């Protein structure tokens, strides 16, 4: 991973974020991304290899593992992280578009041109809507993934023993999940951090809308 490039992107996102957005970004980077890279991947690296069933029937273990783990936690978290961080980079792209448009006007009309965006990074007009929609999208993605985890993994809990009777298993087979307590703790940790991120997104969206309404009321007086 290019940490220098990632650090540059995070600094750029911070410039155009509110205080709530900076807290959200810190939580995502420290408590979600770093925990995912440093610890979570190692915890789930042996999930299939150490999924033991008390049978030697060919194919039974694979079928049972696929039934109880239809999608890996790690892959779901990776997809979730990608989806919740992309909207922040879309805000950067919108600001870059504004700056490029200003630069083209300056080249065409000279230094005394009429500026369309006196402050390209200020959340006004289309950029305000882009930022607000990015918050709603991020909160929606996190809520959808919380529901997916809740449905797939029995209220976020991984039991030590699961019973499987799917073909080609000859009968009811006992299967044992590796390190279930550790995996449950990590799952609950990620769930709690995700809930905090959702709350921050909603607070920031409320703050933006409230601030805009206050500005309109002051302008109307």
TrEMBL record:
Pfam family, one: Connexin
Family: Belongs to the connexin family.
GO cellular component: connexin complex
Any single biological process term in GO: cell-cell signaling
Transmembrane segments: 20-39, 76-97, 128-150, 185-203
Name of the gene encoding the protein in the UniProt record: Gjb5
Cellular compartments annotated: Cell junction, Gap junction; Cell membrane
Connexin cysteine-rich domain location: 141-208
Membrane topology, from the record: Multi-pass membrane protein
Cross-referenced InterPro entries: Connexin, Connexin_CCC, Connexin_CS, Connexin_N, Connexin_N_sf
GO MF annotation list: gap junction channel activity
SMART domains for the chain: CNX, Connexin_CCC
Predominant localisation class: other
Keywords from the UniProt entry: Cell junction, Cell membrane, Gap junction, Membrane, Transmembrane, Transmembrane helix
Protein role: One gap junction consists of a cluster of closely packed pairs of transmembrane channels, the connexons, through which materials of low MW diffuse from one cell to a neighboring cell.
Domain Connexin N-terminal: 42-75
Protein name: Gap junction protein
């Amino acid at each position: 991973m290019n940490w220098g490039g990632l650090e540059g992107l995070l600094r750029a996102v911070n410039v155009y974020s509110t205080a709530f957005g900076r807290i959200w970004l810190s939580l995502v980077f420290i408590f979600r991304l770093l925990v995912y890279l440093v610890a979570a991947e190692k915890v789930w690296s042996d999930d299939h290899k150490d999924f033991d069933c008390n049978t030697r029937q060919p194919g039974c273990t694979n079928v049972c593992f696929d039934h109880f783990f239809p999608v890996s936690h790690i892959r779901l978290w990776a997809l979730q992280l990608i989806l919740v961080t992309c909207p922040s980079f879309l805000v950067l792209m919108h600001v870059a578009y504004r700056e490029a448009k200003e630069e083209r006007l300056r080249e065409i009309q000279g230094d005394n041109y009429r500026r369309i965006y006196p402050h390209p990074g200020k959340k006004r007009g289309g950029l305000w809507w882009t930022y607000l929609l990015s918050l709603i999208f991020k909160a929606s993605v996190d809520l959808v993934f919380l529901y997916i985890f809740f449905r797939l993994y029995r209220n976020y809990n991984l039991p030590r023993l699961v019973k499987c009777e799917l073909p080609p298993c000859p009968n009811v087979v006992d299967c044992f999940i590796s390190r279930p307590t550790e995996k449950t703790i990590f799952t609950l940790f990620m769930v709690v951090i995700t809930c905090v991120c959702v709350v921050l997104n909603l607070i920031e969206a409320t703050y933006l809308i409230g601030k805009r309404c206050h500005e309109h009321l002051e302008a109307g007086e």
